[in-house]
Write a structure and sequence with these properties.
single chain, 497 residues, alpha+beta, four-stranded mixed sheet
Length: 497
């Protein structure tokens, strides 16, 4: 089966049929299978007996299948399917709109305001969604909420009222009606677990598309982990966040062997914020990536081809918070990862907000922009220039001159950031890699990167590196991770200007 491009638009029926019959996990979430005889839609990995081809329809999204009257399968659980990265990340208007929907734009806004953020008309945006996704934006938003509610009802003991709140429904009656219409059963009929004891963490599955090198991602995060804020061991990532008076914490670890999913434990997260936390973690751990698509872009490259074959599950490690990534990127200019971590740890120790009630080792929140805008950083061993840059970035964020809006194009993001004193192209693109999880961010000036791309010779110039990387678009950030990993050396760069 040709997986070089996976699923083109429109869906290729022959490819879908082969993936369905072979239960190919690489296609999980890239399409959904609906059976006309049962009116149920499934993931291509569904373990149920394969229906007759004459009774099968294929849909590019769960929302499109539900719009045609199909209900989600209780066995393969479409709510666990990873997202379709082809349309979730990128410069296309649909990709940017899907990103905004994921980040809750339609929770309190309208399709008109969503379209305005993309400089489009609402009618044009609806047309693009129907063409590429199969349904209007509001359908995508509603299906996303209902599938998340279905996961909470199936995997947790949360009260139905809290599930409704977590899924973004302000009214329990509206939630019950919408859920029953989509699933043909009432929410309470999915209850499988007894009510959890007070204080017990909530446990959820975070699905991904294999292969997935979780160990490599943890190793990257472990080398940069900030004591007190996060803890990373060989098998898990933990972090404290939220309200200092009532902090939340989470732990992401390896899931069951027979499932393509990570295990998430969350404690103290208000129901209304739970979906946002899950969305943030899916981005941070790059759970929606399509590794076959990315590998296809590098397969014939003399440098990257062998690396992709050696590390087929490489992911792009994101960051929890954009401002935190910005501070750490500035501290990392022209120094090693270990040195940057030491400086960042001092910032946390001096200006971080203490919390109580979290597990051992998680005792502080990373300071926000308001806490650092006038902070005296010089006493921490931070150079005068970098201290000024951090304060300048904090002020610019508070003023709204820069931000980490997830839908903004890469070039626009970089242009706004490099206009600030002390921020160069390397720093801006590194922040786009980690803070936005942008798949095409590319810190071309990185010295280790330029050496790794020219094995056996002198380091490429920045200009030559940029030209060399044109063939790697739109996945240049993954090329960066492969090249950094190939030399196993912390990346360094000249100071940004």
């Amino acid at each position: 089966m040709d997986t070089s491009t996976l699923l083109p638009r429109p869906l290729d029926t022959r490819t879908c049929e082969q993936a369905r019959l072979s239960r190919d996990a690489r296609f999980d979430g890239l399409f959904f299978t609906a059976v006309t005889s049962t009116r149920i839609y499934c993931r291509p990995v569904c373990p149920a007996p394969s229906p007759k081809a004459a009774n099968v329809r294929y849909y590019a999204s769960a929302a499109a299948a539900e719009a045609d009257g199909f209900r989600p399968c209780l066995r393969c659980r479409p709510e666990l399917a990873p997202g379709n990265d082809v349309w979730q990340r990128g410069e296309h208007a649909v990709a940017r709109a899907l990103t905004l929907i994921e980040h809750g734009e339609l929770e309190h806004g309208s399709v008109d305001t969503l379209a305005a953020r993309l400089d489009l008309g609402a009618r044009q945006l609806r047309r693009l969604f129907v063409e590429h996704v199969g349904v209007p934006p509001i359908r995508v938003h509603t299906t996303r909420r209902l599938l998340f509610a279905k996961q909470l009802l199936t995997e947790t003991a949360m009260p139905v009222t809290e599930v409704a709140m977590a899924a973004g429904f302000g009214s329990l009656r509206r939630f019950n009606a919408a859920f029953a219409q989509a699933n043909r059963i009432a929410p309470r009929e999915l209850r499988r677990l007894p009510r959890a004891p007070a204080g017990a963490p909530l446990v959820l599955k975070l699905g991904y598309r294999p292969p997935y090198d979780f160990a490599a991602l943890l190793a990257f995060l472990r080398g940069r982990a900030l004591p007190g804020v996060e803890a990373v061991d060989e098998a898990s990532y933990s972090r404290v966040f939220g309200d200092p008076a009532a902090p939340s914490w989470l732990r992401v670890s390896v899931g069951a062997r027979d499932e393509h999913a990570l295990r998430l434990e969350v404690h103290g997260v208000p129901p209304g914020e739970l979906l946002a936390v899950v969305t943030r973690l899916r981005r941070m751990f790059d759970l929606d990536a399509a590794p076959q698509t990315i590998a296809a872009a590098f397969r014939r490259d003399a440098v990257l081809g062998p690396l992709v074959r050696k590390h087929p599950g490489q992911r792009l490690p994101g960051g929890w918070d954009g401002f935190e990534i910005a501070v750490r990127a500035i501290l990392g200019q022209q120094v090693s990862v270990a040195a940057a971590r030491t400086l960042a740890a001092r910032v946390v120790e001096r200006f971080g907000t203490p919390v109580a009630g979290a597990p051992p080792g998680l005792a502080k929140l990373f300071p926000d922009a308001a806490q650092l805008v006038e902070a005296d950083l010089g006493a921490l061993g931070i150079t005068t220039a970098r201290a000024a840059t951090i304060r300048g970035v904090a002020q610019a964020l508070l003023d709204g001159r820069i931000d980490f809006r997830p839908e903004q194009p890469l070039d626009a993001f970089a242009e706004r950031w490099v206009a600030l004193p002390g921020i160069g192209a390397w720093t801006a693109h590194y922040m786009a890699m980690r803070g936005l999880s942008h798949p095409d961010a590319f810190p071309a000036a990185d010295l280790i990167l330029r050496r790794a791309a020219a094995p056996g010779g002198d380091a490429l110039s920045t200009r030559a590196m940029e030209q060399r990387a044109e063939a790697w678009r739109p996945w240049r950030a993954y090329a960066v991770m492969h090249l950094w990993r190939s030399v196993a050396v912390a990346p360094k760069t000249k100071p940004s200007r």
